[in-house]
Amino acid sequence: MSTRLANAGRLVNKNKAVSFTFNGKNLRGFEGDTLASALLANDQMMVGRSFKYHRPRGVVASGAEEPNGLVNLGKDNTFEPNQRITTTELFDGLTATSQNHWPSLEFDVGVINTYFSRFMPAGFYYKMFIHPRPFWKHIYEPMIRQAAGLGKAPKDRDTDTYEHFNASFDVMVVGGGIAGLAAAHSAGQSGARVMLVEQTADWGGRAVVDMPSIDGKTAQDWVADTVQALENMPNVTIRLRTQGSGVYDHGYVLAYERLTDHAPENDGPRHRLWRIRAKQIVTATGAIERPLSFAGNDIPGVVLAAAVRDYAINFGVSVGDRTVVVTNNDDAYRTAITLKKAGLDIPAIIDARTSAEGDLIDEAKALGIRVEFGKGIAKVKGGKRVTGVAICNQAGEGAVIEEISCDCVAMSGGWSPVVHLWSHCGGKLIWDADQAMFRPDPEKPPLGADGAGFVVTAGVANGHLFTAEVIADGFAAGRSAAKAAGFKAKAAQAPMGEDAHEGPLAPVWLMPQGASHALRSKAWLDFQNDVKVSDVQLAAQEGYESVEHAKRYTTIGMATDQGKLSNINGLATLAKSLNAEIPNVGTTTFRPPYTPISMSVIAGVAKNELFQPIRKTPMSDWHTANGADYEPVGQWRRPYAYVRSGETVHDAVNREVVNTREKLGLLDASTLGKLVVKGPDAGKFLDMMYTNMMSNLAVGKCRYGLMCSENGFLSDDGVVARIDEDTWLCHTTTGGAERIHAWMEDWLQCEWWDWKVYVANVTEQWAQVAVVGPNARKVLEKLGGMDVSKETLPFMQWADGTLGGFDARVYRISFSGELSYEIAVPASQGRAFWDALLAAGEEFGAMPYGTEALHIMRAEKGFIMIGDETDGTVIPQDLNLQWAISKKKEDFLGKRAQERSHMADPNRWKLVGLETVDGSVIPDGAYAIAEGTNANGQRNTQGRVTSTYYSPTLKRGIAMGLVLHGPDRMGEVIEFNKVDGTTVQAKIVDQVFYDKDGEKQNV
Amino acid sequence: MLTLHCPNCGVHADETDLHAEGEAHLKRFASGSSDDDFHDYMFQRQNPKGVHFERWKHVYGCGKYFLAARCTATLEVFGTYSAQTHEPPQAIKDAITAKRPGWSWGDFS
User: Does residue A460 sit in the same domain as residue A557?
Assistant: First the structure.
């Protein structure tokens, strides 16, 4: 069993007990425990189930590479799935539940998959679920979706706070082991601004566990002294619990700081995302121990050798009472020595090497530990927990020599440098055959803006496994990074480390070397995703030669692993199956983040009202207080309708239309884009921007204009007013103001930069109200101050003046077909002017109307709407707007494109009005169906609806649509499809449904 | 997440402050031009692996466009310069030649 040892762990405070629950069980640990060490101390070895076969899973590692110990943490609004127990620090009241099982961890129905595992090899899902085709959508996909996914998605809103820091440093050091500390120290001494981050809660990495001597001190003392020195340097920032998560272009680094995960009672943000620009980055990210591939290596109790040591030394926890160590290197002997000295049994060290010599081997032997060279594990015995191992010759096929009972297997297949951060931005790797590892190629670092490398790697991450090399390399990396960042290194002595003599490792990719298929199909490469040696071999056999394809086919290294534990063993297996060298097979791509970071920290403070600013007009408060039902239009919120008590939204819309047509409507049109275009060449410029002529517009007059993209498609429309000799005011659509402003700037800055024109977006400078309806003039006359008569201010003209004491610019334009004035006042007076209009208009039946009434009235008049009648594939000619395209101008944006043969094709669908035969409303987006089917067996079409409404004026459904040869087919009845499979008949009519002669607006 | 120097306002800007605006030095073909010329202007792009010239806009900064010469493969930036020019300044071309001898791009080399 796993239990707490008598001698306290290095990190644990035995005077402070902490209670927590796991799957509802009340358990106790100590301050300083991780959830993993506390569970092991409570003999809770089994912590989850695997993804595919639902096999029992125990802790394998002690750090970020842990594949199995993923749990749901917290509940309700602090619930989070897939939290690693090895990196979760214990706190009082922690609640955890295990994942991937039903109904319970101990008894799981899904375990049946393991009995069918021989029928579920690599690619099973791809092969199984492809036929019959219709089954995918209705049976397979819903079933797989039900079973898929690690953990459960949170249901409640996250109530914690999160934030971003933006920072820049000369040198960023990732990793707080001895290499990182030495690098930060030497870089800091040069005067560079340095940041050092360490993902765990503890400085010193492996050195403080394995305790080599540095500069004549214990590693622990050296680490403490160096941390103290760094804290005293004002130019150095150091952070624990902060992971260097990703390295990006030009020295951009994301660091993920966990502030209160270990102490939820503390105030302040839970996580912080550091967005860092560093001139130079030092990756001192250490290495991850590799598992060995033998049958039953996934049974709970089989743990990485260094992790077994970590639990004993850091937390005073023994994983088992009797531990068999299996290894291909000397380092794992440290585990045997540590456990033996703690009074635990080590029945044997199984060393796959035929022979080896070194200080650690000697020490183990001197402690009386049995060492077996040239041996391997044929098979681990046990179900939910290891009960023993069967030993065989490593060189053979797995014939059992002896069985040894034990409850823990400590395995070590060597060490793989953590090259993730080096590789994120293009750093290349080389294969180090002697040490059987990929390590960074110092000749091919990630390149920065100046073409020089901006990442250096140091210590174990650089392939150095011994203290003396590691610390010297860290010191040198810090100096060279500071120098590359423009600082001069001070003369200083590199720290000196001392090491035990160790012999070389022997690469072991399969144990035993000639393992049978039966053994290989129980030898796990990826514990989380259930990928075995046999699966990778099958993938190779089926032609998945690329490591990227093999990864996706077998799912090796997917989900949280991302090239940590399973990577090298997987690609070594693939290489062997392909008879290729490991470096020729290569690695899969390392992508940030190193481990998952919370979604909430990515959002930071950008949530709720801070997610996206809402633009409000000066009249916005009035709208809210008067029943506005809002709709988003760009970043604005506009009232869709003003709903009165007892009304539906639809009722309100109809009331607003009828009232405007019969009496007086007021529309808050402030959101309409307003661009001032000014300068000696402004007229020439607008002639290029618009399809029609704007340079010849007389001062005081308005003209409706169209803008097209250079590809000929209609992009925006609006009324242009000429203000004076060199000034025009261009109205754009509400959503188009910023886009059209940018479009104008583009042409002025990058094509016609010698034209003297200036453009300013004055949208928010003005509040604008459309005063619409038969009584429009009456209310303005009542306000008084300027002549708004037909004679003085005819249709499509504008005038400056005052109305009721407000400075006003009055445009006599109409988007409804009614007598209409659009009145702009300074934004600061917008609300007062709105109130004045409502008060003055009361006797004339004044009533505000929203965007839906606006849309209906424009559709009744046959006016197009950008975004309804246009979708980026429609040219003005399709909409019968030839009248707005100048034939005199030599050039305008889109003219050349519209000369292409397809643009003049008489078969282009053209705009018409549509009147349903039964008076109903055609569904939005409906297509006009034609005879026959196309090559895909779909019904042929001959047109589509672009706008469709119930017209309260005509008391029937009306629509506009683009129809093949539409304008030549007036009176013809065509059919539109409906979602329920039936159709609706509509007659092709003129697009102007209301007051075709314009008698109502020209009064 | 590139960083580019804005030659208009002098700020060394982060990519989040910038907006990529496609290929630089396009020659506009207007009404009356041949179909091939217009097609190339509208749709044909260099898309090189290596030296490239691009338009950028300092959209969350001074609002001005500028042009950048950079390597699409290594992300090395050879220089940025005014958008008000039909070809890269000699100093930019020299900077590229120093790093990528024998380069060519469209009509430039």
Answer: no
